[in-house]
């Protein structure tokens, strides 16, 4: 009987010790906070939690709170969140060490401690991480800068595609190409002339956000393969220059759409005079996001 009493006493003491473990309620104070696999800025991001999300932590390692969250399939996983992106709402449990700032626990009017509130689930179909790659088919309207070019061929449609690869943080490498083909009339003889341009550009693109709407800016190099055929002959050359762009990508699950404004400056010398193949392109795209 004495052994049983001692066992019960030890169980009660252990239970009291577990109950006394400090529980810290946290609230996310930035738009999207990263939860990492380890208490390290270089560790992998396991999830992002939104502004205002309430979290519960029972352990702190340096400037990192250990928390429990659910993954995209609803399974519980542990992770670490930096103290700089959360506010401490309340601390309940053991008394803080001497000199440590005191946190007042928030209680309901009846005196009961508030129940932990689960993190809100992510918006359906939009993963919190940045996409690793995007592939688009693109249609645009090209307006050339060069007045001679414009007087003979005018503006026209460009058909092409784009591959965008994630490099680091919000930076992506964009590789795009297309084809512009028009028929016009030579200025002096009025004979028919056909022009085909294959614009190619490689740009570094920066996405400002990581949710479902991704505005971006980009800058890089531009190349054009130029081929003109008429009664005078055929000219087949390459031109080089630069370009920059701005736009926005919207994604839902693995689908994405994109709207872009791009400006390029490319020079080429088909015969004696130099010609400009650059200009302004307004385009729309649709494709897949990984």
Structure, briefly:
Helix content is 9%, strand content 58%.
**Strand percentage, roughly?**
over 45%
Estimated helix fraction: under 10%
Task: Average the pLDDT over all residues and give the rounded result.
Answer: 82
How many beta-strand runs?
A: 16
* Main sheet characteristics: 8 strands, antiparallel, barrel
Radius of gyration: 30 Å
Task: Give the CATH architecture of the largest domain.
Answer: Beta Barrel
Q: How many H/I helical runs?
A: 2
Total tally of structural domains: 2
Tell me the structural class: mainly beta
The CATH class of the largest domain, by name, is: Mainly Beta
Shape: rod-shaped
- Following the backbone from N to C, one meets helices and strands in this order, namely HEEEEEEEEHEEEEEEEE
Alpha-carbon distance between the two ends: 65 Å
Q: According to CATH, what is the topology of the largest domain?
A: Porin
Low-confidence stretches: 12-20, 94-112, 122-127
Enumerate the strands of the largest sheet in spatial order, edge to edge or round the barrel: 8-9-10-11-12-13-14-16
């Amino acid at each position: 009987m004495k052994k049983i009493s001692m066992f019960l006493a030890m169980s009660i003491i252990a239970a009291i010790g577990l109950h006394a473990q400090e529980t810290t309620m946290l609230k996310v104070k930035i738009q999207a906070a990263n939860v990492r696999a380890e208490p390290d800025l270089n560790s992998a991001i396991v999830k992002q939690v939104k502004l205002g999300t309430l979290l519960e932590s029972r352990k702190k390692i340096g400037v990192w709170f250990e928390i429990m969250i659910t993954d995209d399939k609803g399974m519980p996983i542990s992770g670490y969140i930096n103290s700089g992106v959360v506010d401490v709402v309340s601390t309940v449990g053991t008394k803080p060490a001497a000199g440590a700032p005191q946190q007042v626990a928030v209680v309901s009017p009846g005196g009961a401690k508030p129940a932990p509130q689960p993190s809100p689930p992510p918006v359906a179909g939009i993963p919190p991480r940045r996409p690793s790659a995007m592939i688009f088919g693109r249609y645009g309207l090209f307006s050339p800068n060069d007045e001679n070019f414009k007087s003979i061929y005018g503006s026209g449609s460009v058909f092409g595609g784009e591959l965008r690869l994630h490099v680091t943080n919000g930076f992506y490498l964009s590789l795009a190409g297309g084809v512009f083909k028009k028929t016009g009339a030579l200025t002096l003889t009025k004979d028919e002339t056909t022009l085909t341009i294959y614009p190619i550009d490689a740009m570094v693109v920066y996405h400002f956000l990581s949710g479902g709407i991704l505005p971006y800016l980009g800058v890089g190099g531009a190349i054009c393969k130029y081929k003109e055929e008429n009664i005078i002959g055929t000219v087949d050359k390459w031109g080089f220059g630069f370009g920059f762009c701005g736009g926005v990508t919207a994604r839902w699950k693995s689908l994405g759409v994109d709207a872009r404004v791009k400006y390029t400056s490319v020079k080429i010398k088909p015969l004696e005079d130099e010609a400009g193949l650059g200009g302004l392109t307004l385009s729309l795209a649709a494709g897949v996001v990984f």
